[in-house]
Structure formats: C-alpha cells, structure tokens
Amino acid sequence: MNLDLLRPEICLAVTAIVVIAVDLFFRHKLLVTITSIVGLLVSFGMAISLIGSHELSVGNGLFILDNYAIYFKFLFLGIACLVILASTDYVKRLQNLHGEFHALLLTATLGAMLTATAQDIIAMLLSIELTAISLYALVAMLKNSKSSESAVKYLLLGAVNSAILLFGLALVFGFSGSTSLLDIAQTVSSIQVGNIADNAGLIFGLVLILAGFAFKIAVVPFHMWAPDVYEGAPTPITLFLSTVSKIAGFSILVRFLLTGFSLPESLSNNWGVILAVVSAITMTAGNLLALTQHNIKRLLAYSSIAQSGYMLIAVATMGIGSFHTISSSSLLYYLTAFAVAEVAVFTVIIIASKHKDNDDIADYAGLAKQSPLLACAMTLGLLSLMGLPPLVGFMGKLYVFSQAVQHDLLWLVIIAVVNSVISACYYLKIIRAIWVDAPASADNIRSSFAPKAVLLIACAGILLFGILPSILISGTEWGADLISGIWEFFR
Q1: Between the CA of residue 160 and those of 155, 164, 225, 251, what are the distances in Å?
Q2: Cβ atoms 158, 125 nearer than 8 A
Q3: Which residue numbers in the chain have pLDDT < 50?
Q4: Helix (H) or strand (E) holding 326
Q5: Residue ranges making up the domain that contains 217
Q6: pTM greater than 0.85
Q7: What is the pLDDT at residue 192?
Q8: Which of 220, 225, 228, 427 is the most interior residue, by most CB within 10 Å?
Q9: Domain count, the chain
C-alpha cells in the first residue's frame, strides 16, 4: 500500500490521539496547545521530506502524491497552526473542552489533507466527510443557543449535501465501472463529441457532484448555510471554515474536473461555461447581500461567498481555455492570498471578542485608539480582500483576471471588477468604524503573545507576497505543475 507516503497524515492522526491523552492526564491545558503545535510542525517537516518523491500512487491508487497534493498539505498545516495559535486565549471559554477542540481541529485538517490527495471517489468521499463531521462538532462547541442552532443547520444541510454528492458519485461509478479518477477519465474521454447527450446518466452524476462541491465552497445557490454557521460558530472555527474547509473544496474540485472530466474538450467547455455563470451570480449575490449586514461575522460570510465567485473564475478558465495552460497557478495563488488575509481579519476578531459584547460592526468603532496593532492588521486584511494594490489580494485578482481575459472571459472579468468596487463599500465601512468613529470604551485591548505573533505573520505575508509576488508565484507554479502532466497523459 506504500503508506509511508502518507506519513504527514499519519503523524497528524497520532497527534490527535496524543492530544486527548494529554488533556486527560495533565492539568495544565497549555500542554494541549503545545502538543498540537508540535504535531503540526512535525507533520509539516514530513511533508517537506516528500518533495521529489518519485512514487506517486499511494494505497493502490486511492491517493496520489504530486506537487499539487504537497502544496495543499503545506497550506492546510500552516493555516491550522495559525488557527491554534490565534485561539490560545479564546479556548479558555470552552471550559473543559480544550482537548476535544484541538483534537477535532487536527482531524478536520487531516481530512482536508487527504481530500487534496484523493484520486479515488471512495477516498475522496471519506476524506470530505472526515472534515465535515469534525466541523459539525466544532461549530457546536460553545454550547449556547446560537452555536447549537448553527450546528444543527450545518449538520442537516450537510447531510443532504452528502446524500447528493454520494448519489452523483454512485452514478459516475455505475456508468464508468470504476472508482478511480484515471479510469473514469478514460471512459469519459472515449465519448464522441456528438454523443455527450447520449451519456445522460454520467452527465447527471457530474451535475450532482458539482452541486455537492458547490456546498463545500459556499457558492450560489448552495450558500445558505454560511452566514448562520459563521455567526454561531466559535470564531476560530469560523476562521477554519472560511479557509481550510473552503480551500479543501476547491482542491478536490479542480483535481476531480481536470483528472476525470477534462476530455472531450466539448465537455470541459460546457462545465467551464456553467462555472463561469455560477461565478458571476455568486460574486454578485455575495457582495450585494454583504452590503446590508451589521454583524461582522455575517458580513465576512457573504464576503467569503463573493470570494468563492472570484476563485471560480480560475476554475472556469481551466475548462474553457486551452489546456496547455492547465498548469497555471492563478487559483493556488488566489487561495493562498485569501487565506492570509482571512487569518489577519479573523485573528483580530478573536482577540477583540474577549472585550466586545457581540460581533456588531459598531462595537469595533475606535479600535485604532484601543489597539493600533489590531486596527492595522484588520485594515491590511480587509484592503487585501478588497484587492487594493500593492497587497497580495490585488496580485491574486490580477493573476486570475489576466488568465481569464486571455481565454475569452472578458465579460466575466468586467463583472468581477464591478463587484470588487461594490465590495469596497462594506470593507471601507468597517475600516471607517475602526479609524474614524469614537470608541465605546477607552480600555485597551490586550492579548497574549501567540495571537499577536499570528497577526504579524499574516500582515508580513500580505505585504511580502503583494510587493514581491514572484516568491509566491514560484511556489504555486511548482504546486500546479503536475496538473498539466495529467492532461498530457490523456492527450
């Protein structure tokens, strides 16, 4: 089975078990956090050791180890480490649930890593559900009415989504005769250009699978869960949902489409056009709904929905465009830029929530006078999400938009630019409250060293990758390299 190539994931699974044991036998809860961080760092080191591995197939074809998978391992482990560090003060609210919080966070990260590596639809489904089940419990961890209500909504909608996804995967398996994406690709590529309609069962399965993925990445019309869950979940989990969970959804969406359904070109053009239309609707709906929000977590939920629309531009380009550019790293760049900005913004909310009565935007009035560091970090994060140069968010949008223009998606880029202008209205509303409005309290906002370190790391990433984008581009091009290899294999 060659499971040695899954040693980062195995290390993370062992760490989750050790965390529970440490929480059970030791009184000092800081040891739980330290154990989690050490496990993540060791797993990160093991992922580094996989670079250059020539053995791609893992577990008899269930998983594949390529640059694409390794890049997402780095991304998920890095974000999980930052989330745990940012929540060192927040977890004190969870009373006796320190061990459960960290263990579930680690298993959710484990599921995300396996999702990006899966090359078999059974492995893909199990990996997705491992992340989802962990998140259902994490959302309810505050045990108050709002958190419990959000968890129930998330669980019920997630169960329906899982059923839809499973039905779609079953149809694809039934009509292709295999669970391997490579075997499915051979079956799909043999379809004659004029006979796509004759394979209605297979195409219907693809539509259901796309609907299942659409729920995971929160795009219209499967976005309805995001605002309620973002608002009711513990803020560190909201950060995790908006980054790791969303990025995992995009990672498997891209692998599934490009490996299994990239040929014939008429089929890829069709799903490319569909995703382009969904992208336009999603970014427009997300930004317009965000304009009316007064709760900062709900506003950022709709902002995250709009960001998914921008990300879908890159995926649509892969379907519509010429496939010699499949190795384009624009999506990986944008996902990373989005994650760095989200970490900065939500870490500020995590720190400030200790001193705020609720999550209303009005409660952040005068934040600059209470804590200049928090104000600067949130401002940088919001401006990056808005796409203001020279921050990393601007470079991400420029990268994605330029690729789309080169492949005859100018109309979609125009819609995206208009939506970026609309988004400035609600981002600047928050920034105005932070810097211009008078604070409700003159008390300074204090936090421990770890959350401040996360802010400094996130802000450094926003500035460094924006001013020197070649640093990140070189990494994302390496991460996207073997996607083109898959295409060339079938071409």
Answers
A1: 9, 6, 12, 22
A2: no
A3: 323-327, 490-491
A4: none
A5: 3-490
A6: yes
A7: 66
A8: 427
A9: 1
